[in-house]
Amino acid sequence: MACPFIEEPVDVEAQILRRHLHRERIIRPRLDVLSFPDEYLFERFRFSASSIIYINDILSPHIAHMTHRGHALSSEQILCIALRFFANGSFLYNVGDAEHVSKATVCRAVRNVTLALKRLLCTFVVFPSHRPTRLLKEEFHRIAGFPGVIGCIDGTHIPIIAPSINEGDYVNRKSVHSINVQVGLNSSL
């Protein structure tokens, strides 16, 4: 046992050698997510392969890496990581383990996809109304005293008896047969 008051000789060459040796990078092979059947994709990402391709075509200019250095994820991989996080609401670590990436990578993917979706919000989310937004806000404020509201939306799963055709399409995340119903309201109704 070494005495804490006596200095041990330092192997300077060994320290220099350790500093200069680089740890070999281990690159995990990436799976082609879209090669899996739609049932598998829908269960994990809540979208079919054709839907993921469509969303990727829209978002890829906003989420793709501009560099070709290293082993950057493709826009499709970034999108799938974010969709998996959105679909199951799990922790970043869990999604990272499932997708074979780090927690930081999942965090960046979710952030980039969220910001890209936010940029395109006005293109895809439009209330069907002939009345100007200002009038809708004033009406909701008059009814409930809540400023800046132009509409309300909510959704729920209505339980059903399992259908004989496409039965798997009606199973929700809790393994119950249901139909997902959304209800919207704006003050022009």
Describe this structure in a few short sentences.
With 189 residues, this protein is mainly α.
Largest sheet: 2 strands, antiparallel
Task: Please list the strands of the largest sheet in the order they lie side by side.
Answer: 1-2
How many beta-strand elements?
A: 2
Strand content: 5-15%
Structural class: mainly alpha
| Oligomerization | single chain
Low-pLDDT residue intervals, each spanning 5 or more residues: none
Q: What order do the helices and strands follow? A: HHHHHHHHEE
| Average pLDDT | 83
The radius of gyration over CA amounts to 26 Å
Which word captures the global form?
extended
Helix content: 40-55%
Total individual domains: 2
Descriptive notes:
- The N and C termini lie far apart (83 Å).
- The chain is built from eight helices and two strands, in the order H-H-H-H-H-H-H-H-E-E.
- With 189 residues, the chain is mainly α.
- The model has no long low-confidence stretch (mean pLDDT 83).
- Helices cover 46% and strands 8% of the residues.
- Helix 3 (49-63) crosses helix 4, helix 4 (75-88) packs across helix 6 and helix 5 packs across helix 6 (103-119).
- It has a two-stranded antiparallel ribbon.
- It has two domains: 12-122, no CATH class; 127-185, no CATH class.
